[in-house]
Amino acid sequence: MSEPVTILGLESSCDDTAAAIVRHCDGAAPEILSSVVLGQTDLHEAFGGVVPEIAARAHTEKLDLCVEQALADANVTLDQLDAIAVTAGPGLIGGVLAGVMLAKGLAAGTGLPLIGVNHLAGHALTPRLTDGASFPYLMLLVSGGHSQFLIAHGIDDFTRLGGTIDDAPGEAFDKTAKLLALPQPGGPSVEAEAKSGDPTRFSLPRPLLDRPGCDMSFSGLKTALLRERDRLVEAHGGLRVQDRADLCAGFQAAVTDVLAEKSRRALSEYIASNPFDPVFAVAGGVSANMQIRAALETVSKEFGARFLAPPLALCTDNAAMIAWAGIERLRAGLTDDMTLAARPRWPLDQQSPAMLGSGKKGAKA
């Protein structure tokens, strides 16, 4: 058994400031020694969404406090670490930059290796942290900013089977919550409201199910919900409590149906080339939705695939996944120097054409 590797991970790509310590020794399960996440919901609540400038400032103020707390909780000192891992993209550039600069300072001050991690890879490698998944496996990465089916062949080797061509599901949940005057973040608010709603009352669309392939679209669904809301407001002089619950239930059911059907197609394609011991994993904030998670597990059973979903605390943005990805990269000899740059865009599959366009900042996904 090799010597244990202990890494500090930093995450600041959106509106969660996080630090974590993860330790791993070959032949044993990884240990999350500490995981600190400081949210910013109260800072953005009045704006109905994340304000990048406010998020960046909060990261700058909180990152060092997160690191101190993570070290204290893990009972670890800086000289007991083997490396510093940090989200280097994609994300809101101000927040990513804050994390990268702190990581560089820590690496320079301690002499420890610096490891830049793709935030999406952190989510995509979570099944290896939580369940010891072996490559290759099928991953549905479904979050506020991203939605894509990936075959994970290795720590730096991903093949995209499909993804969203517009809004990600998490983004659609947030916008739906805003349309219905529900608090942010939208995912938990819509899910809670949907529990008392009728998912069959409104005929909401299931976009792209009439087309082959694994690509998804949620913008039209959001627009359809807006029209139903406006119709109800005009008819009743406002949105009644049951109307809102039914709209949430209908919206959630539509998203669930789309993700389930697209998962069937992705599983068919994946299993065709990987028929032995197939694994279907899900990660990202939307994977915390219990209805969606249950539907994906049912689809996985249809194909005889092992279904993996992270604990709820590891669904949303966290630094434990970044520390774990750092351990994987360190063991593969993949470290960075002080030229490590913060990247607003950083697709995992860099061979496939960009789905959401490109530009000076690079491909979005």
From TrEMBL:
EC number(s) per entry: 2.3.1.234
Free-text cofactor note: Binds 1 Fe(2+) ion per subunit.
Keywords, ordered alphabetically: Acyltransferase, Cytoplasm, Iron, Metal-binding, Transferase, tRNA processing
Localization terms from the record: Cytoplasm
One Gene Ontology molecular-function label: iron ion binding
Positions annotated to bind substrate: 141-145, 174, 187, 191, 289
Pfam families, per the entry: TsaD
Gene3D superfamilies associated with the record: 3.30.420.40
Cofactors: Fe(2+)
Reactions catalysed: L-threonylcarbamoyladenylate + adenosine(37) in tRNA = N(6)-L-threonylcarbamoyladenosine(37) in tRNA + AMP + H(+)
List of residues binding Fe cation: 119, 123, 317
Enzyme class: transferase
Keyword tRNA processing: yes
Tree of life domain: Bacteria
Family indicated by similarity: Belongs to the KAE1 / TsaD family.
Entry-linked NCBIfam families: gcp_kae1, T6A_TsaD_YgjD
Record protein name field: tRNA N6-adenosine threonylcarbamoyltransferase
Organism field: Maritimibacter fusiformis
